[in-house]
Design a protein that fits this description.
The chain is mainly α. The protein is built from six helices and no strands.
Length: about 220
């Protein structure tokens, strides 16, 4: 019985890693689409969202089977509980990568007079958070999980700078107001991705220590 349970736990880990790889790829496509105005990359990010949604449902079903048909000990129960929370954040990251790409598809049809240089920097910072939150889970690395949580302040500060820059652009020339608002929306989606990466890292902390971030 325990051997079967361990095999299913191993499968759960593999599926979480695969879903993590999917969201990393979705963000990579979304960033390339934005920076290069590459509509094909935008379409790839949007299409990948369906695969991410299916993976969330598959992992959720496995977690529920483990909870209903097995009797997990405390450590295993923490992992399963954390997995259920993590996949919700991963799914939202996939949604937001798709949202960014949908706006990028629209922006690619019109010329960019000015595009704040901080948006690609913010995109790279959020991608770093997502990658490291997944790495923290794979490696069971508490220090890396803590670093991801603390790095969220960097992304929040970048969002504030981007928003200020774009608002200044609107004040200088309101003919570009709609484009600036779209770019603010993109920056906001990246900021939310950073929040979800933070949540994933916090659940990694819980799965390792049994304590929530504030208590650890």
């Amino acid at each position: 019985m325990r051997n079967s349970f361990d095999e299913q736990l191993s499968l759960l880990n593999e599926m979480l890693v695969e879903m993590g790889s999917m969201i990393e790829k979705a963000i990579s496509f979304a960033i390339s689409a934005l920076v290069d105005q590459d509509v094909e990359k935008a379409k790839q990010a949007i299409a990948l969202d369906d695969d991410i949604d299916r993976m969330e449902k598959d992992i959720e079903a496995l977690c529920l089977r483990l909870l209903l048909h097995q009797q997990p000990v405390a450590r295993d129960l923490r992992l399963i509980s954390a997995a259920l929370k993590m996949i919700t954040d991963m799914e939202r990251i996939g949604d937001q990568a798709a949202d960014i790409s949908e706006i990028t598809e629209y922006l690619a049809q019109i010329p960019h007079d000015r595009k704040p240089e901080l948006i690609p920097k913010m995109a790279e910072a959020t991608a770093k958070m997502v990658t490291e939150s997944i790495d923290a889970f794979v490696k069971k690395d508490l220090n890396l999980a803590h670093a991801v949580i603390e790095y969220d302040d960097v992304v929040d500060d970048l969002f504030d700078e981007v928003k200020s820059t774009l608002m200044e652009m609107i004040r200088e020339d309101n003919t570009n107001g709609e484009q600036a608002i779209d770019l603010i929306m993109i920056a906001k989606y990246f900021e939310r991705i950073g929040d979800h990466a933070t949540n994933i890292a916090e659940w990694v902390v819980f799965s390792i220590t049994g304590k929530h971030w504030e208590e650890a």
